[in-house]
């Protein structure tokens, strides 16, 4: 079966391992991945806990597509309470760990408590081992993985943290191979539990409930992939193809969002990156090799993806592709969440160029835009919390408050730095950044409809309802779980292909209305988690710069436009004017067990 309903529950404090079974009714209502991750986090975690305390929970979760023949389905999710936003967070990562978790016989791993020394958790099918990991302390992420494979076998799959996670940088990430669970600071959560690494080896074969039905679906799905014109572009350039497209639209963010046209865009474009690619790579079981092994003078990386080009390129004024590739790899090696790191560095650079922070404030670093040599040193300082890096490890919003400078151009929502799609021009993205339960990411309410001219760019009317539909769609996608890059094939909104995928995987006969309700349920439950933590309408907003300063093309999302979209979004979801889900909405969605959260 593609979904077991069995989770590995690990209590680190007492070194206790149990099986946690998820009832079938929960699977039917939340599917897996994002949905069950949110359900477990809400139901197992107490209100108001410190994200870096032993009471926080870290959940590694798969979906029913993991470990099956469905292409583009290798991603797994990680869920926790964020030390950066203090609310719900999730992140998704490609690679082999999710498949291997299923091959070991588990849908996911629930971790609570903390260790009294650095620990490596190893899962061997049904057995769990706790190994000393003090020898790995301070290791970069690739070095740690190499050493683990040397000791325990080349076939293990690993999750590790770097120095940033060890030192509780609030936006530290988790790394698997050269791929990252990048948002929300879950590397810091893992570090707070003194887990340096989690490895897994499994030998179980996945047996779908209805093999013929799934195989028939996969055959048709693969035909659609191979015949889709957009896939060829994805194979050639990966997500870096977006650089010049957004540049031509005038919505490529640069220089800490002071501009949305970058003068060196061609130098860091997908076309220029293609010249550095030595191999196209795909995740296990995927037939679209969108990953790029690209080389610089002194290193190589997988990517950079579009968001990496944004974070280590355009937003910090870096038009040198060699340096961009080096910084992309360095953030992974240190275990720094790349988008948030880029936002922090860009904020510091603007403060420096405007004379608000001086060289002596920055440990002698001249952090003007484009000075990548200074950025390399700053990244190291942040990861090890040295000097000014100790303060910047808290994020740009907290650093601004403590230093008393640069508050007017901090580019955060809910304490997290924004991703690289324009909330000035892409109105669904403006809404998405403002209302996103995990902070301003591009993967919950996607920008594709407007960036591809399916709905009008720069027009806000009706985008509240559109935003709701997009949130429902991605909540389902991330519960299945398949890669959002597959949107080029499967579609930019919820459709019959996605319904067919769910029904083939689970051998269900779910209707489109029932599937839509699953997406509503998942997104609403994330919202309920944040409501319980004290979030409300006041937290759904955008940086001042986006609301008040137009781009070169004249795009701006005014406060009036944002308010109108948020109102429509809340109404579409059945939430009240404070963004709290109404009791009747929860009853409609069969979420009666959570009605107490709205009282």
Could you give the count of β-strands? 17
Strand content: 5-15%
Strand order in the largest sheet: 2-1-6-3-4-5
Mean of the pLDDT scores? 95
Shape: globular
Terminal CA distance reads 39 Å
General description of the model:
This protein is α+β, with helices and mostly antiparallel strands and 599 residues long. The chain has a six-stranded mixed sheet with strand order 2-1-6-3-4-5. A four-stranded mixed sheet has the order 8-7-12-9. Strands 13-14-15 form a three-stranded antiparallel sheet, covered by helices on one side. Helix 7 packs antiparallel against helix 21, helix 12 runs parallel beside helix 14 and helix 17 crosses helix 19. The chain is globular and about 60 Å long.
